[in-house]
Amino acid sequence: MDRITALSERKKALFSSLVLFALLLAVWQLATKTPIQGKTEGLPGPVAVAERAWEMIADPFYDRGPNDKGIGIQLGHSIGRLMIGYTAAALVAICLGVALGLSPSLYRALNPYIQILKPISPLAWMPLFLYTIKDSNRSAIMVIFMSSLWPILANTAFGVGSIKRDYLNVSALLQLSWFKRLWKVILPAAAPAIVAGLRISIGSAWVAIVAAEMLIGGTGIGYFVWNEWNNLQLTSVIFAILLTGFVGVVLDMGFSSLAKVLTYKE
Amino acid sequence: MGKNQKAGLLDSTADQPKQTANVETLIDQKVEEAVAHAVFGSDLRRREFVRYVGAAGATAILNSIFPMGAAKALAQGKTGPIEKKELKVGFIPITCATPIIMAEPMGFYKKHGLDVQVHKASGWAMIRDLSINGETDATHMLTPMPLATSLGIGSQAVPYIMPAVENINGQAITLANKHKGIKEAKEMKGFKFCVPFDFSMHNFLLRYYLAEGGVDPDKDVQIRVVPPPEMVANLRAGNVDGYLAPDPFNQRAVFEGEGFIFMLSKDIWPGHPCCAFATRKDFAEKNPNTFQALFKAIVDATQYAHQASHRKEIAAAIAPRNFLNQPVEVLEQVLTGVYPDGLGNTKNVPDRIDFDPFPYHSMAIWILTQMKRWGYIKQDIDYKKIAQEVYLASGCREVMKSLGYKAPAQDSTKHQFTFGKNKSFDPNAPAEYIRSFAIRRA
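Output (structure tokens, whole complex):
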């Protein structure tokens, strides 16, 4: 009986979602006029955006010069930068988080600095990075690094700090080496918290990279948005925004399945 | 002396007259002679030196302290081998950079032996940083920027040179449609304006225009720095009342039905410089042949763009997404000067935008006086010296002549403004010029 109601609940939710989507599209189409001769007369309707989307998706890998590349290439650049910055941030944050989680005094010592640096918008770091690093691409990657660092750090420290004392006592009793202790006890115990941190971080990193690319130019989905904005091509801008959201969902889904694998019942 | 060795001056037996094969070798020898003489001062000392280190060693040492290759090439009057063929040139997608941009699709860079990719930047601060970092080899800049960056104002101090002006005229004051009745500057008190950058002719011309109308640009109006593509959107949103911007964003506002063209910048100072082609000084010093080739390509493209008959073809070449990314009609309206002004009239102003590469020192001095006038420069400066170091008037003259174009004989000239108490700007009296203004910060 339970399974059946659960299934019909899911079906109801999916149905309402689809109805809502159709309703939104209809409202959007009615609220806007179709553009005349390419001139933008207010916000473009969903039909215009769909046409533009089809154009871009049909030929995603063209390359007509350094300032005009297909949407596939632009996304590739953005995701590439994201992965480099994010991986670096994850490594640093997990190591530091474990150290902070295991040592409450170290945590208290470093906490004020973390609290001050955490709320700073990653884009505000950009001018400083450009000035010191002297390379626009690496500065963009550093912006990702700064935006991904804090959630992972905070969650890892929390996760490690709340490991049951019993586990740590047992590992001390068994006289495990520090490496075995880390790999077999601490990380698995803190895994749910760490993955939650990773999942939050990928979201904020993706947000930051699009904004950074609008400033830096060159390649990337953010640059694409800016380039189309120059020409007041709102259809392309809206399409790029939706695409950004879609990629964000895919990234998040990746982590949610990772989380499912690593959780366990107490 | 071996069979393959040329009878150079550093050969210790070079006291007898040399047999010269041709004029080129003679010129090369003369250059070596001059350098050796300058370094050693006397023949005796030179011969001793060569005896100690050998002829090859002496040549190597001299070459390391003096750019012998460049000196010989200069003396020959031709460019030697190009040091760096693949270059990146930064640009902002506005019609001011037309010569820089069109040189890629229309083959001017290729004609002079270079493989250049023009790289779109998102804003003036970014383009300056890309150039300072060396991510671009040469760049599109606003004419005040090489001066400001060389002086270290608004950025770190990096010496820049400006071999050529990109465009003259080509800007306009655009106002929102709701201000259609405005006729004069004094009606603009309380307005919010945009300019693309602090160190821009747009900022200085707007301030000049407002001040001549009795409006203090710092106290009576608000001037904001906004990237040009966002200006049209800001106009539509009602965030700003107008802007003095580079085209095509004035014409685009008319095209979108958001604003009208109030006044062309050529009606403030006919023939004013706007954008520039600039490089870091050390790039030109390290790669003199590349720099010469680039210089020639740019001047060539600029002179081609100057011809009215070429404007339509240029509009089509620079419209695609890789370059300006604007509708072709808008670019044609800007470049040909036949355009609707947003008030229902179709105007025909052929020199609405024009292209003339010559970087007069007097232009630099005017810009410096305005920077001092509005408080961007606080200290006393040697106007002439800075203008001579940054604006390469004599270099441009040489390149123009070598390509067969006529160049002005003087490095400086008096500039005429359309209105104002002091309509004629005399570059020899910059301090008096600043003092002659009623509204100023210095």
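The mean pLDDT of chain A is 86.
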